[in-house]
Amino acid sequence: MGIRYSKIENKNKREIVLLKSFPCKYGKCKFCNYIEDNSTDELEIDKVNLETLQEVTGEFGALEVINSGSVFELPIKTLERIREVVHNKNIKLLYFEIYYGYKNRLDEIREFFKGIDIRFRMGMETFDNNFRINSYGKNFKIDTPEIEELSKKLYSVCLLICVKGQTKEMIKKDIELGLKYFKSITVNIFINNGTEVERDEELVKWFVENYNQLQEDPRVELLIDNKDLGVFEQ
Fold first, then answer.
1. Quick one: which of 9, 65, 118, 156 has the fewest CB in 10 Å?
2. If we measure between CA atoms, which residue out of 100, 112, 26 comes closest to residue 68?
3. Alpha-carbon distance 103 to 90, whole Å?
């Protein structure tokens, strides 16, 4: 069954829910088996999501919503229930995920949740265009001006590290650029998951030895294990 509700209490305190959604608009990332949680059955999606949202208490005034895609792939009934919960539980801060292709539609979500502080997170994975496209299968290319533009729209980006083919220099640069342009970054150490992307154990060892201080940085969400947020689907 997995776990769909949890609390993050070490820093940036918030509740978090893992919701079901319609299939990811892109769905071609080479590292992702997350999309196995997708469904085309709207009734099933809403049933799971409404049950999960019942657990939200509002105790931190902040809620993070993640799903196997983007917030735009959640059914309208689920979105309406999130809005009800947010208002009923006096939640002032909402985190959502988006895919790059939705970057010009963010105001739709802000309008839907008017009066709530919305923070969007996007899977950048790496600032190296070639590695993002060829190794991760994430088919978008960005330059510095667009990174600067995205930094005005997004609160945070996700970085995927410690995979074969990556170098220490790439990881260093990704973290530097992430912290330079965005208010926050999520650093995910890759866990083998049956996809074609493979974990590099030497890079993991090097990273943990040299970057453990990121655990204390309020700007950084460091996920050493993919279950560190407390929610996961099996």
1. 9
2. 26
3. 28
pLDDT in tens, 15-62: 999 999 999 989 899 998 877 788 999 999 999 999 999 999 999 999
CB atoms within 10 A of CB 72: 20
The DSSP annotation for 151-207 comes to HHH-SEEEEEE-BTT--HHHHHHHHHHHHHH-SEEEEEE----SSS--B-HHHHHHH
From the CA atom positions of the chain, what is the Rg in Å? 17
For residue 124, which amino acid is it?
A: M
Q: CB neighbours of 40 closer than 8 A, spacing ≥ 6?
A: 22, 23
d(CA 50, CA 93) in angstroms, rounded, equals: 19
